[in-house]
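Raw record, unedited: Thioredoxin
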Amino acid sequence: MGNVPAVTDATFDQEVLKSSKPVLVDYWADWCTPCKQLSPIIEELAAEHGDKIDFVKLDTNDNPTTPARYGIMSIPVLQLFVDGELATEIKGARSKGAILKALDTYL
């Protein structure tokens, strides 16, 4: 997980909701093949745009409370939080270009 640190149910509020920067949360699990395909794209985006957006991963197997709180029914899902509020959601494995387009306002 090189450039993308993990958050947990216990650290989510502090690391994501109270962040001064927008935060993109990658909800994933080890058994999820599309999540594994998405992971290198998230790593690239973090390396390229980490100055504007913080990128974090949340393992839904180990941390079920936060996904339930935000209505995550299937993964992968990316959620962007700005000033503690959910600003946008990207469901399913997407291309780098599609993710950048969805995040364009915040980059």
